[in-house]
Amino acid sequence: MAFELPKLAYGFDALEPHIDTKTMETHYGKHHAAYVNNLNNALKGTAFENASLEEILAKAVETPAVRNNGGGHYNHSFFWTLLSAEPSAKPDGKLAEAIDATFGSLDNFKAEFTKLSLSIFGSGWAWLCVKNGTLHLYSTPNQDNTLMPFHKEQGLPILGLDVWEHAYYLLYQNRRVEYVEAFFKVLDWKVVSSKFETLA
Ligand code: MN3
User: Which residues 6+ apart lie within 8 Å of 18 measured at CB?
Assistant: First the structure.
């Protein structure tokens, strides 16, 4: 069964003015769509044609086209679910406690996550991961993620930010820091908190 572009829970203009309509149209409709198509083509005729995306990322990433496009499909599908036009502004429950315990405060977490996002050279992702119930920051190059064997010891992501230029260049040009600030305005902590509940 071929992979498909997941439906977005909001319109392309829903995240304005923080993430603009044109960027959403291009990012979802062109970039993410290309990862899906290229992944399906790379899997055609292989033993992984009917495998789950998780299984593919765990076992089939020696093939660069599978690694790049499978990672791209997973990462973007994950990323869209974190964003909302009416986001919860703070984590709750266990995640709120874990962020305070690990980073001191939500503001400190945001500062450290921003620093990590700005430190990524070229294209990649900044992540908040959970391993054995504890939180830590991590980054990956290109479309890698922690489901892949190269990064598996980092646990699983509950929050991730795409810092490829295609994610922000139309609106923010080279000002990645403004894009990270904008991300926090549309990040739905309710979603992140519930991802943490399932892993912690
Ligand atoms: Mn992207």
Answer: 182, 183, 185, 186
Angle (CA) 29-34-35 rounded to 5° is 115
Cα–Cα distance between 80 and 179 in angstroms, integer? Answer: 15
- Ligand 1 centroid distance, CA of 161 (Å): 9
Whether pLDDT at 109 is above 80:
yes
In degrees and rounded to multiples of 5, residue 109 shows phi and psi of: -60, -50
Residues 112 and 186 both lie in one domain: yes
Is residue 109 domain-shared with residue 155, that is, in the same domain?
yes
Q: Are residues 97 and 195 in the same domain?
A: yes
- Ramachandran angles phi, psi of 48, nearest 5°: -100, 10
State the distance from the centre of ligand 1 to the C-alpha of 97, rounded, in angstroms: 30
Q: Which of 61, 81, 101 is the last residue of a domain?
A: 81
Domain span at 124: 93-199
CA 153 to CA 3: how far, in whole Å? 27
Determine the average pLDDT of the residues in 52-78. 97
Q: How far is the CA of 27 from the centre of ligand 1 (A)?
A: 6
